[in-house]
Write a structure and sequence with these properties.
single chain, 140 residues, mainly beta, Metal Binding Protein, Guanine Nucleotide Exchange Factor, Chain A, 9-stranded mixed beta sheet, 39% strand, globular
Length: 140
Amino acid sequence: MNLIAGSCHCGNIRYDFWSAMLPEELSVRACQCSFCKKHGGRYSSDANGKLEVRIQNEHRVNKYRFATETADFWICKDCGLLPLVTTVTSGKMYGVVNLTTADDIDASLLAGKPVDTSLEDKTSKEERRRRTWTPAILLS
């Protein structure tokens, strides 16, 4: 497994993203919704990988939800960065990481393929996420 570690700028929200793929093999998605475009989100996941999330101070994290309100966009209240997005489906947490917040990632990998999921209904979004997002756990 290959590790991509990352965090918000101040380090309050940290993640370890383990993938069977090399960074250059990962699918990088540039969501076209207005929220993600403004945050410069370049998301990646691996359904066969593992995502570990660590929070230094929970009170300094804002989880923003919009549209179908089925995903949490983790934003640090201190530095304002958005390092990851999670969802809970069928009692299991899944997530994607914003590769712009990775500690050591080649900038040439961040272009991202434009994606628009705005026409998906809630059930379709949940099924796609269960199938393609990375199984995630929140560590204390």
